[in-house]
Amino acid sequence: MTFIHFLAALPWRNEILSLASVPFFFGGLLLFFRILGKTGLFAWTVLCTVAANIEVLILVHAFGLDTTLGNVIFASTFLATDIMSELCGKKEANRCVLAGIVANLAFIAVSQSWFLYIPAADDWASPAIRTVFAATPRIMLASLAAYVVCELHDVWAYHAIWAWTARRCGEKRAFLWLRNNGSTLASQLLNVVLFNVLAFAGTYSAPTLLQIIVAGYAIFIATSILDTPFLYLARRIADRHPEFLAR
Questions:
Q1: Average pLDDT, the chain
Q2: Structure pTM?
């Protein structure tokens, strides 16, 4: 029995895969940072903003609720901007957001250009690709709108909380967990409501849409809390290897 067949036989595989995706994606981000330095944070943001917009087309049932995929991988982009904010400052964090915006716009243009070609008689892939990517413009534009609002808010909130805690305790490095979770939880609420309403209103029934929003935010609450150790680890890596920030 292959590993894929083993997973397919598990009754709780959606839940298992959802839980396993947290260390996989957050750890993947740190691996990019460890190998490529600051450039790795930009690369991860571009990769995940595009991948999340494809994954989000898939609706799964996990933990008793219907939810779309893409929540965890998209949550890792918040970790990327928080790492960038912590280690490189607000300007570089906003540049990371800009990289995600440009990647989204480029992918919309590229994916829609595929439909301008006339498939060959023996082509077998075009129907499946058209089925998947026909919804891409709405999904991508909804994601882009939500991404711009929530990620810029996340960077602003991160530094606002940081300035407040620094004034209160006189220690700049303290309360990393607070600025991380406070900014991300507020921004993810904006994201999950704005994206799902813009992307899926009229596609799913109102009860299903509400369930997707609730389930999505529940996942974001969990991932926001779980990404905190990875942020501390990124800061520790940067303390030991400050040259990574120059890459």
A1: 86
A2: 0.86
